[in-house]
From TrEMBL, chain A:
Name of the featured protein: Peptide/nickel transport system permease protein
Keyword Chloroplast: no
Sequence similarity: Belongs to the binding-protein-dependent transport system permease family.
Signal is among the record's keywords: no
Taxonomic source organism: Natronobacterium haloterrestre (Halobiforma haloterrestris)
TrEMBL record, chain B:
SUPFAM superfamilies cross-referenced by the UniProt entry: P-loop containing nucleoside triphosphate hydrolases
Keywords for the protein's UniProt record, in alphabetical order: ATP-binding, Nucleotide-binding, Transport
Sequence ranges of Polar residues compositional bias: 430-441
Compositional bias of kind Basic and acidic residues: 406-424
Name this protein carries in UniProt: Peptide/nickel transport system ATP-binding protein
GO biological process: peptide transport; transmembrane transport
Taxonomic source organism: Natronobacterium haloterrestre (Halobiforma haloterrestris)
Chain spans, region Disordered: 272-296, 402-441
Family membership: Belongs to the ABC transporter superfamily.
MF-aspect GO terms: ATP binding; ATP hydrolysis activity
Record domain ABC transporter: where: 16-266
Length: 397, 441
C-alpha cells in the first residue's frame, strides 16, 4: 500500500520492524531472575561458610527468605511497575476505617515479625524475674526471687509486687519478657503467612487454572488428585512426620500447607471454566496471546472476587492451625509461638514448695498472645474482604 | 458483484478461501476418553471472501456458523479441509507468519458484555492487540487508541474508564476500535449486533460499514437475522446443520430464494406484506442433533418441498401431510393426544387407526393405493404402540431420494444451491417461489 492513504489510516505501524526487534526480556522477568540468582548465591556462599550474615539462619529461615523473594516477584514487582494501579487499590482498601485498621495491623505485624527479633535480640533467661505483672498491675511477690517494682502489703501475709517499666508487659514463668514472646510469636505467624502466600497459594491457583483451562485428561487427573488429597487429614500426616523427625515449624508448614490447597484449586478451576469461554478470552486468543498471558491477564484478575477471600481464609486457617498445634505442645521447643505461650499461661508449669497459682492470677501470659492471635485472624478476614472490593473496579466506594 | 460461479480463474485471488472445511468435535466417554461419536459442527463448507467484500453467513443457532468462523481464524482446530488466507494455508502457519495472520484477521464477538475484560480499562483493552504484538512504546499505544476511540464516536478520555461504565452499543463501538487497531484485512464479526436493540443496532452496523469502506477491510459477517444481512452484506451463504445449502449475491438469494430452507428462514421473519405468508413453513420445528445428522439431504426431515417417490401419485399438499406424518413418527414427536395415551399402561389405550389419522390430519383414505397401504399399516402400528414398526413401514413405503442421497451443489442463476430439486441427476423441478425475481444486474 502506498503512503498516500496514510491520511485514511491512523498511524502506520511497521510490524515487520517490531516483530524483528523480538521479544526482549521484560523488566519484570529480569528483576525476578536477578533476585532468584542473588538468593541462590547468598545461600551457597553462606552455607559454604564464605560469607557470614552476622547471625545464624536455620533452614526454615532460608525457606521463608525464598518465599519473600517469590512474593516480591509475584506481588511486589507488578505493584512497583504500575504505581497508579497500586495507589488506587491501596487508597480504595484504606477508604473504610475498619479495613484500614486491619491492613495497618497486618503491616505492623509484618514489620515487627521481620525486624522485631533483630532489634530486640534474645534476652537472657532470668528466672529471678519470672511472672512479673505488666506495668500497672501486680503479682504475688513470692513467685519471683527479685521484685523490680514496689512491694505492697496485701491481706494477711500476702505481699504484692507491682509491675515495673523493666517489663512493661510482664514476664512468663521463665522470666521471658512478654514483649519478646509476642514479637517471636509475630515472627512465627509471619512465617506461616509468607510460606502459605508464596508457595501454597500459587500452587493452588496454578493447578486450578491449568485444570480449568486445559480440560480433558489433565483436568481429570488433577481433579481426581485433589479429591484424593482432600481425604488425607493433614494432622495425621503431621503426626507421622513428628514421629520420625523432630517437631519443626517447617514440617508443620509443609504438611498442612501441601494438604490444604485443594479447596482453593477447586474454586479456581470452576471459576476458570466459567471464564475461559468469555468473549475477551476468545479475542485474546485470536490475537495470538499465549495461555500463560491469558491466565495472568484475563482469568486470574477476574476471579479475585472469590479467590482473594478464599486465600485470606486459608492464611487465617493456617495461622490458627499453627497456634493450635503449638498449644497442644507439638511444636519446636525453641520457637515461642503464641499458641505455646497461651498454653503456658493457662497451665503454668511452675514447681516449688507452696507455689500455687490459678491461670487468672497470671492472666497476662495467656491473654496477651490470645489478643494478638485474635487481632491477626480478624485482620486477615477484614483485609481479604477489603482487598476483594478494592480490586473490583465495579465496586464504587 | 462480478461474481461468476465456475470461473474461478478469472477472478483475482480471494482474501479468504475456505474449501471443504470440516470441524468435528469428538464426544468422549469414560476416563480413557473413548470416542463414542462426533458432533459434525461444520461438515464440508466452502466459500471465498474477496478483498474489501462483506460476506454473510446465515443460519439458525446450532447451524455451525460460529464454528466455521472460529475455524477460519484457527481458534478451533479443523478436522478436515483447507483454509487459505491470502493464498497461504492458515493451518500451516507458524512463527512470524502466524503472528502476521493474527494481526491481519480480527474478531468481534457477539456479547458486548463479556467482550471486554472487566479488570482492564477500555484504553488497555483497545491497546492490548498492540501490546501483544510487541509494541512496547506506551505513549505510542496511547496515541493510536485515542485516535481510534474518536473515530468510532467516543472521546479520547474514555480510555481511562472501565467497560462497565459503557452501554452495550458503546461497547460494541469499542470492540470495532479494538478490531481495527492492527489495521486488519479481515474482520470476523460474530453476530455483532444481536445483543443490541433496534436503533443502536443500526448505528453500530452503519459504523461498521463506514470503517469497512474507509479502511478497505473485508468482513465475514455472521448472523441469524436475515434483515441485518440484507442491509450489510454483498454476498451470503445460508448454513444448515454444518453445511452451506445456498450461496450467492445477497439480493438474488433473498429476493428469489432457491433452497427450501432459505425460504423457511425468510418465512420466519415477520413481514408487513401479507403475501409473504405464502413462504414455506418447516414441517417440524425441532432441529436434528448435529451428532446424528439425517441421512441424505440434512434438511429433508423438515423440508416442505421433500421430493415424492416416483411411483407415488399424490397432490403436493397431501404428500406434504404424509411426509410430515412420516418424519414425526421417526423422531417420536407425536401429537399430545397420542403421546399421552402411549404413556399409560392401559391395555385399551383408546387410540385406533382413525384417531391416529385425525391426529396427523390424514384423510380417511388416500387416493394412491400404495400410499394408502403404507399409511394404513403405519397407523395401525402406532395404535398398537409399536413406533419402530411404524417407522420402518413408512420408510419402506415412501423411499424419497432426499433421505437417501446427499445432494450435490447445483447451479441456479449465479449461485449454488444444495438441493435435489436443482440437481440435474434427479428428476424433480424446482418449486417456484412466490417472490418475483428482482436482480439488480
Amino acid at each position: 500500500m502506498s503512503d498516500t492513504d496514510n491520511t485514511h489510516r491512523f498511524e502506520r505501524v511497521d510490524w515487520e520492524e517490531i516483530d524483528r526487534s523480538g521479544r526482549s526480556l521484560s523488566s519484570t522477568r529480569a528483576t525476578v531472575a536477578v533476585s532468584l540468582l542473588a538468593f541462590a548465591a547468598l545461600y551457597t556462599l553462606e552455607t559454604a561458610g564464605i560469607v557470614s550474615l552476622g547471625w545464624h539462619l536455620e533452614r526454615i529461615d532460608w525457606v521463608i527468605l525464598l518465599g519473600l523473594v517469590v512474593l516480591g516477584s509475584l506481588v511486589g514487582v507488578p505493584a512497583v511497575r504500575r504505581p497508579e494501579v497500586t495507589r488506587r487499590i491501596i487508597s480504595r482498601l484504606v477508604s473504610r476505617p475498619i479495613h484500614a485498621a486491619a491492613a495497618g495491623f497486618l503491616a505492623a505485624l509484618s514489620l515487627v515479625g521481620i525486624f522485631g527479633s533483630l532489634i530486640l535480640g534474645s534476652p537472657e533467661l532470668s528466672f529471678a524475674h519470672r511472672l512479673h505483672a505488666p506495668y500497672g498491675f501486680a503479682s504475688q511477690a513470692g513467685w519471683h526471687a527479685e521484685c523490680l517494682g514496689e512491694i505492697h502489703q496485701g491481706e494477711g501475709i500476702t505481699r504484692y509486687c507491682e509491675g515495673s517499666l523493666s517489663y512493661p508487659l510482664g514476664t512468663n514463668h521463665r522470666g521471658h519478657p512478654m514483649g519478646y514472646l509476642l514479637v517471636e510469636g509475630a515472627r512465627i505467624t509471619l512465617y506461616v503467612l509468607v510460606f502459605t502466600a508464596a508457595f501454597i497459594v500459587p500452587l493452588a491457583s496454578t493447578v486450578g487454572v491449568v485444570a480449568g483451562f486445559r480440560g480433558g485428561r489433565i483436568d481429570d487427573f488433577l481433579t481426581s488428585y485433589i479429591d484424593v488429597q482432600l481425604c488425607v487429614p493433614a494432622i495425621v500426616a503431621f503426626f507421622i512426620g513428628y514421629m520420625y523427625w523432630n517437631a519443626s515449624l517447617l514440617l508443620l508448614l509443609v504438611m498442612f500447607g501441601l494438604l490444604s490447597w485443594g479447596g482453593i484449586a477447586r474454586l479456581v478451576r470452576s471459576e476458570t471454566l466459567q471464564r475461559r469461554e468469555d468473549g475477551h478470552v476468545l479475542v485474546a486468543r485470536s490475537l495470538g496471546a499465549s495461555p500463560v498471558y491469558i491466565a495472568k491477564r484475563h482469568i486470574v484478575p477476574n476471579i479475585t472476587n472469590t479467590l482473594v477471600p478464599a486465600i485470606f481464609h486459608l492464611l487465617a486457617l493456617l495461622v490458627l492451625v499453627e497456634a493450635g498445634v503449638a498449644f497442644l505442645g507439638f511444636h519446636d521447643i525453641e520457637l515461642y509461638s503464641w499458641g505455646s505461650t497461651i498454653q503456658e499461661g493457662l497451665d503454668p508449669p511452675v514447681t516449688g514448695v507452696g507455689l500455687r497459682m490459678a491461670a487468672h492470677e497470671i492472666w497476662w501470659v495467656s491473654t496477651l498472645p490470645a489478643v494478638a492471635l485474635t487481632l491477626t485472624l480478624a485482620s486477615l478476614k477484614l483485609v481479604g474482604d477489603g482487598l476483594r472490593d478494592a480490586l473490583d473496579p465495579r465496586q464504587n466506594t | 458483484m462480478s461474481e461468476r460461479i465456475g470461473g474461478a480463474d478469472e477472478r483475482s485471488d480471494p482474501l479468504l478461501e475456505v474449501e471443504d472445511l470440516e470441524t468435528h468435535f469428538p464426544i468422549t466417554r469414560g476416563f480413557l476418553r473413548r470416542e463414542v461419536g462426533r458432533v459434525r459442527a461444520v461438515d464440508g463448507v466452502s466459500f471465498r471472501i474477496d478483498r474489501g467484500e462483506t460476506f454473510g453467513l446465515v443460519g439458525e443457532s446450532g447451524s455451525g456458523k460460529t464454528t466455521t468462523a472460529l475455524s477460519a481464524l484457527r481458534l478451533e482446530e479443523p478436522t478436515g479441509g483447507e483454509i487459505r488466507f491470502d493464498g497461504e494455508s492458515v493451518t500451516d502457519l507458524s512463527g512470524a507468519d502466524l503472528r502476521a495472520f493474527r494481526r491481519r484477521a480480527q474478531l468481534i464477538v457477539q456479547d458486548p458484555n463479556d467482550a471486554f475484560n472487566p479488570r482492564m480499562t477500555v484504553g488497555e483493552a483497545v491497546a492490548e492487540p498492540l501490546a501483544l504484538h510487541g509494541m512496547n512504546d506506551a505513549e505510542r499505544r496511547r496515541r493510536i487508541v485515542a485516535d481510534l476511540l474518536e473515530r468510532v464516536g467516543l472521546a479520547a478520555d474514555d480510555a481511562d474508564r472501565y467497560p462497565h461504565e459503557f452501554s452495550g452499543g458503546e461497547k460494541q463501538r469499542i470492540a470495532i476500535a479494538r478490531a481495527l487497531v492492527l489495521n486488519p484485512d479481515l474482520i470476523v464479526a460474530d453476530e455483532p449486533t444481536s445483543a443490541l436493540d433496534g436503533r443502536v443496532q443500526s448505528d453500530v452496523l452503519a459504523l461498521l460499514d463506514d470503517v469497512r469502506r474507509e479502511f478497505d477491510v473485508a468482513v465475514l459477517f455472521i448472523s441469524h437475522d436475515i434483515d441485518v444481512v440484507r442491509q450489510f452484506c454483498d454476498r451470503l451463504a445460508v448454513m444448515y446443520l454444518g453445511e452451506i445449502v445456498e450461496r450467492g449475491p445477497t439480493a438474488e438469494v433473498l429476493n428469489d430464494p432457491a433452497h427450501p430452507y432459505t425460504r423457511v428462514l425468510l418465512g420466519s421473519v415477520p413481514s408487513l406484506d401479507p403475501s409473504d405468508r405464502e413462504l414455506a413453513r418447516p414441517l417440524t420445528d425441532s432441529v436434528p442433533e448435529p451428532s446424528d445428522p439425517p441421512a441424505g439431504c440434512r434438511f429433508h426431515p423438515r423440508c416442505p418441498d421433500v421430493i415424492a417417490p416416483a411411483d407415488v401419485d399424490l397432490e403436493p399438499d397431501l404428500w406434504r401431510t404424509v411426509a410430515a406424518f412420516r418424519f414425526s413418527v421417526r423422531t417420536g414427536e407425536l401429537p399430545p393426544e397420542i403421546d399421552a395415551a402411549r404413556g399409560t399402561e392401559d391395555p385399551e389405550p383408546g387410540i385406533d387407526e382413525t384417531t391416529v389419522r385425525e391426529a396427523f390430519d390424514l384423510p380417511g383414505e388416500l387416493p394412491d393405493d400404495r400410499a394408502e397401504e403404507g399409511v394404513a399399516a403405519a397407523a395401525e402400528a402406532i395404535a398398537r404402540g409399536d413406533l419402530d414398526a411404524a417407522t420402518d413401514t413408512l420408510a419402506e413405503a415412501f423411499p424419497t431420494v432426499c433421505g437417501r442421497e446427499s445432494p450435490a451443489d447445483g447451479d441456479r442463476h449465479e449461485r449454488q444451491v444444495r438441493c435435489h430439486r436443482y440437481d440435474s441427476a434427479v428428476e424433480a423441478t424446482p418449486r417456484s417461489s412466490s417472490r418475483t425475481l428482482e436482480t439488480d444486474g
